[in-house]
Amino acid sequence: MTKGNDQDARYLEASTEYGASLERLAITMEANPARRHDLLQDMHVALWRSLARFDGRCSLRTWVYRVAHNVAASHVAREKRHHSRQVSDDALADMPGGEDLQSAQERSDALAKLHAWIRGLKPEERQIMTLYLEDLDTQTIAEISGLTPGAVSTRISRLKDRLQHAFREDDHA
């Protein structure tokens, strides 16, 4: 198999396995549908290009998330400069009262609220929260983010507390 074919095969495997995760990441990073679509395309292009250098020193999953989060972080920084200014339904169960959401509309509203909350986080916090909501373990999140597993655990705990507090405030408003 030639190098290009190997790259194509790895991309096909990665996009099939992690495409939905990339879409959820794009949703948590970009509210505007047109810019979100561009971000997702940028993630896929960067992923395909990067797979020419993939040497297997980390798992394909770690590689995909690292590339996608780097693209997303660059996108957020670029949008912030220009405008001055992560998640599946399963993640709703982690929200205060999430397990009680009855209707599709309630779930949709809660998910939109969660995405908006995540978009309001600092980029490094967004990265950790979206990876956590993708059900990655702290070791994998540490590999992707460059933090220690202990730092990741601490940040996840603090972010969950902030999320719970934010949603309780909304419920009482």
From TrEMBL:
Residue stretches making up the RNA polymerase sigma factor 70 region 4 type domain: 113-163
One Pfam family in the UniProt entry: Sigma70_r2
Keyword match Ribonucleoprotein: no
Occurrences of domain RNA polymerase sigma-70 region (ranges): 17-81
InterPro entries: RNA_pol_sigma-70-like, RNA_pol_sigma-70_dom, RNA_pol_sigma70_r2, RNA_pol_sigma70_r4_t2, RNA_pol_sigma_r2, RNA_pol_sigma_r3/r4-like, WH-like_DNA-bd_sf
Cell membrane found in the keyword field: no
Keywords: Sigma factor, Transcription, Transcription regulation
Similarity section: Belongs to the sigma-70 factor family. ECF subfamily.
Protein's name according to its UniProt entry: RNA polymerase sigma factor
Species in which this protein is naturally found: Ponticaulis profundi
